């Protein structure tokens, strides 16, 4: 009778180990799945990165001005100083512009950060083209280090006429905090 019980316990332990391994594997798949979801939904991705061919074919619309607002946000207890160099800019669709965001690590230890972009109105996201952006890669900061991080962008001339204002917002996260929030 003990052999039957030990066998059932062994099968249960094996199933639990398999379940734990599956959950661990699923945890590793969350990041690529999240990236795919964001790409499909157009949220927090590198949407709108133009190719060299698209750049050479773009004709600026000198008769139109669009206001681009720059916003920076942090969690309440985030260990960063983070803000845009300018809060807004008037741009001609089809021309490239540059600006920066400033970030500083307020801790006494090395931190890695990631900026997650958001564009409003949502309809404008496919027309906002980032050529270079600090949001494309994780940013490494030593203790107390601060620096300007570049952003090069263009508003596509095909932006619908009724949109005259675009808000580009970045939320800056410590990589460790993102990993903890993700599970």
CA-atom Rg in angstroms: 23 Å
Contiguous helical run count: 3
The CATH architecture term of the largest domain is Sandwich
Helix content: 25-40%
Number of discrete domains: 2
Task: Tell me what you see in this structure.
This protein is about 30% helix and about 35% strand. The chain is built from three helices and nine strands. It has a five-stranded mixed sheet with strand order 3-1-9-5-7. Strands 2-4-8-6 form a four-stranded antiparallel sheet, with no helix packed on it. The relative contact order is 0.20.
Condensed summary:
This protein has helices at residues 2-41, 52-57, 175-181; strands at 66-73, 80-84, 88-91, 96-105, 111-120, 128-133, 139-141, 146-155, 165-174. The chain has 183 residues and is of the alpha+beta class.
Entry keywords:
183 residues, alpha+beta, Ctag/Cox11 (Pfam 04442), 5-stranded mixed beta sheet, 3 helices, disordered C terminus
Tell me the layout of helices and strands.
Layout: H1 2-41, H2 52-57, E1 66-73, E2 80-84, E3 88-91, E4 96-105, E5 111-120, E6 128-133, E7 139-141, E8 146-155, E9 165-174, H3 175-181
Parallel strand pairs: 1-9
Antiparallel strand pairs: 1-3, 2-4, 4-8, 5-7, 5-9, 6-8
């Amino acid at each position: 009778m003990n052999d039957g019980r030990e066998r059932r316990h062994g099968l249960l332990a094996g199933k639990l180990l398999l379940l734990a391994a599956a959950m661990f594997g699923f945890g590793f798949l969350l990041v690529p799945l999240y990236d795919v979801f964001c790409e499909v939904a157009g949220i927090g991705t590198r949407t709108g990165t133009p190719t060299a061919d698209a750049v050479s074919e773009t004709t600026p619309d000198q008769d139109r001005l669009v206001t681009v607002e720059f916003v920076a946000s942090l969690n309440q207890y985030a260990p960063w100083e983070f803000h845009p160099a300018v809060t807004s800019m008037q741009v001609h669709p089809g021309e490239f512009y540059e600006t920066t965001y400033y970030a500083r690590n307020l801790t006494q230890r090395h931190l890695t950060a990631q900026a997650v972009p958001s564009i409003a109105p949502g309809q404008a996201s496919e027309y906002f083209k980032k050529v270079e952006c600090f949001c494309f890669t994780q940013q490494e900061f030593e203790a107390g280090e601060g620096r300007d991080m570049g952003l090069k962008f263009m508003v596509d001339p095909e932006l619908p006429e009724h949109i005259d204002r675009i808000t580009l917002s970045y939320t800056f996260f410590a990589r460790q905090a993102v990993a903890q929030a993700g599970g």
